[in-house]
Automatic annotation (TrEMBL):
InterPro entries, per the entry: Tscrpt_reg_HTH_GntR, WH-like_DNA-bd_sf, WH_DNA-bd_sf
Ranges of residues in domain HTH gntR-type: 27-95
Keywords, sorted A to Z: Coiled coil, DNA-binding, Transcription, Transcription regulation
Record's keyword annotation contains 4Fe-4S: no
SMART domains per record: HTH_GNTR
Protein name: HTH gntR-type domain-containing protein
Species in which this protein is naturally found: Actinosynnema pretiosum
Keyword DNA-binding: yes
Domain of life: Bacteria
PANTHER family in the record: HTH-TYPE TRANSCRIPTIONAL REPRESSOR YTRA
Length: 144
């Protein structure tokens, strides 16, 4: 199947509102990608508990933009087929798994944000230490 770019669609349907054509193409693409990933999960290519490849890798394999792949994966998450964990990726769920309740999603989001904040603070400490080293090196340089 040949990939049709938004530019191709705009040229072909110049009398149609371009945004409508672009949105329709993106919708089909997102739905097609979700269907393809769903089929791969059902076929066992991505077993329960496994992490899906990253959006860039999936996009490369499927001939799609990473953002569109991300939208397809989020659609699968809304269906309960995968769980998306911040900074970890999307993981395949049991088909029988119930989608997370709003309360569970908030709890997971809070835990992910707290973890992210801790990582950010650690990086900030490392940056401060590097800044101090650079300052020391500058101070050691002879004046011009």
């Amino acid at each position: 199947m040949r990939h049709v770019s938004t530019g191709d669609l705009r040229r072909k349907y110049s009398g149609v509102v371009a945004d409508d054509v672009e949105n329709a193409a993106e919708q089909r693409s997102r739905a097609q990608l979700a269907d393809e990933i769903r089929r791969d999960i059902d076929a066992g290519r991505y077993p329960v508990g496994d992490r899906l490849p990253g959006y860039r890798e999936l996009g490369r394999r499927m001939g799609a933009a990473p953002n569109t792949v991300g939208e397809a994966v989020r659609q699968l998450a809304a269906e309960g087929r995968v769980r998306i964990k911040a900074n970890a990726g999307a993981f395949v769920c049991e088909v029988d798994d119930e989608p997370l309740t709003a309360e569970q999603q908030i709890r997971e989001a809070r835990a992910d944000l707290l973890d992210l904040r801790d990582k950010l603070r650690s990086v900030r400490r490392e940056l401060d230490a590097l800044d101090d080293k650079v300052g020391d090196l500058i101070d050691r340089l002879p004046s011009s």
